[in-house]
Structures are given as C-alpha cells and as structure tokens.
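Here is a tokenized protein:
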Amino acid sequence: MSPAAEDPKPQFALRHRLLGLVEKVLDRPGAGPSLAPEAALSELGVSSLKMVSLMLSVEVEFDLSIPQNEITPENFRSINSVEALVRRLLAAEG
C-alpha cells in the first residue's frame, strides 16, 4: 500500500485547498464547510466568468496546466469533479 493510500491527510489537504479556491472565487471567506462537494458549482453561485477564474486558480495553486480537452463542463461541474480532475492530472505528472 502506498503512503498516500495509508494516510488520508493528502486527500483532505487537496479538498481543503480546493474549497479555499472556491471561497475566493465566490468572495465568501469561511464558506468552505457549508459548500456541498457534490453540488453543482453553478448552484453555489459560480458564473461562467467565475468558472474561468476558478480554472486559472486551480492551475496556479496546483502548478498544473489543464489541457484544453480537459476543460469540460463535466470536469468543472462540482467540487468533487474538480478534485477528481486535479488528482488525475497530478497522477499523470507523477
């Protein structure tokens, strides 16, 4: 078993960082705990302009370049889907 599989902290750290980015984009400091990870970001108040801001923030925060083919509504539907995208891209950089 890999160290990451044994220790849940990295998973929670990534989620925490994503929640912080969403809070910033929404201009709602401290809202993280009330944001349902499975809720559609559009329902949380993320407009198309804020979605672009979130995408750019994710690239900076995680030192990633999101490929054009990964910039899809499915990958940016919810906090869960953004988290899955980030995990996939980080693993690919491995």
